[in-house]
């Protein structure tokens, strides 16, 4: 039986690869600006200002908490008729928040209470900018890319975001030599201006190319958020995947706020050197891992549903092994090949991340009534909570371990061991959450077969 006319896909030309890359440039700009707050300012607070690691971790967690409003900003861009304005506006807010956060950090040595108050406002702006700009960019991507290209497009934009982090980390690290507060302000201002300009150029006349890809059956009103959440949670495949995302992203993010302090405290690196080393080797490893998994995973994904599972599990286990090795480095110090260790960690992180994104795209069309945007929003909220909580747990755990053990190397070793165990747990959860049965059940194959 042929499909009813009402269920036929409705589409226009949509995005080509150049347009997808342009959206990737927006993601790269977001990554570059966030890098300043989550790595450079974090390191300066912990090492140069000798503050508790929980302070920058709490600020970063706060910026993730603000991103729980992503569904509201996505809905607003849906109704507003111009996602481009939301993208550019979000990047302007993000850049302004980054500059305010830089100034607040430099004020902490003189007027700590006022500086912390300004930092809270600044990181709220950073979270709002990332949420508004990033959600609108991904919504534009989803509406303008043909279904068969969505997984590849998501991988391209994620890789470009990591590329933006790597490039900005290396550039900022180089420009910060020799370090001074004045130089930090200059570099932060230049970064903000360049990234906003990149966003404006990348989105110029882009939205008119988007077209629209959808099924006419999706014209039915979507359920409210509570009903959508209940449907997702009562679906076994989606529930298992949500738990996997939460655990794996906690493991993924626990390292973010302590790698630069680790390089400074254990290996004696200056601010510019630690930023450049972590950016070049860890983030560079993530980028290469994503490229390898994107190419290899796509080739295998064309053969069978669930074939990304070995990549997800393998990435988790490789990340756990590299974190265990960093635990050894925390005791041995500078003789340890830190750069190679960071690269292996980044490579495992990158393989895991792209394979998890591909699995997420395969699971996105699972609902009886919920749409892909709702499901991606739920998983995005799970990621945001896990990222904020993971960074906070890593930093607070380090502070508590240092107080309890009285030795910084042993403290880092304990935290890295916990992270390694979390990645192993995530790998075990991934076995069922990303298997062929889960992909088939949540890809709506049965629903599509009734129209075949």
Task: Kindly describe this structure.
The chain has 452 residues and is mainly α. The chain is built from 17 helices and 2 strands. A two-stranded antiparallel sheet has the order 1-2. α1 packs across α10, α4 packs antiparallel against α7 and α11 crosses α13.
Q: What is the CA-CA span between the terminal residues?
A: 6 Å
The beta-strand count equals 2
User: Unreliable segments (pLDDT under 50, ≥5 consecutive)?
Assistant: 1-12, 213-219, 441-452
Based on Cα principal axes, name the global outline: globular
The CATH superfamily of the largest domain is known as MFS general substrate transporter like domains
Whole-number mean pLDDT: 80
Q: Which value, in Å, is the CA radius of gyration?
A: 22 Å
Structural class: mainly alpha
| Biggest sheet character | 2 strands, antiparallel
Overall domain count:
2
CATH topology-level name of the largest domain: Growth Hormone, Chain: A
Instruction: Note the total helix count.
Output: 17
Helix/strand layout:
Elements (H helix, E strand, L loop, with lengths): L8 E2 L6 H32 L5 H13 L3 H11 L2 H25 L4 H33 L5 H26 L5 H23 L10 E2 L9 H9 L2 H19 L4 H9 L3 H31 L7 H24 L5 H26 L8 H34 L2 H26 L2 H7 L2 H5 L3
Antiparallel strand pairs: 1-2
Helix pairs in contact: 1-2, 1-4, 1-5, 1-6, 1-7, 1-10, 2-5, 2-14, 3-5, 4-5, 4-7, 6-11, 6-13, 9-13, 9-14, 9-15, 10-11, 11-13, 12-13, 12-15, 14-15
Give a quick set of tags describing it:
disordered N terminus, mainly alpha, 2 domains, Growth Hormone, Chain: A, two-stranded antiparallel sheet, 2 strands, 17 helices, 452 residues, disordered C terminus
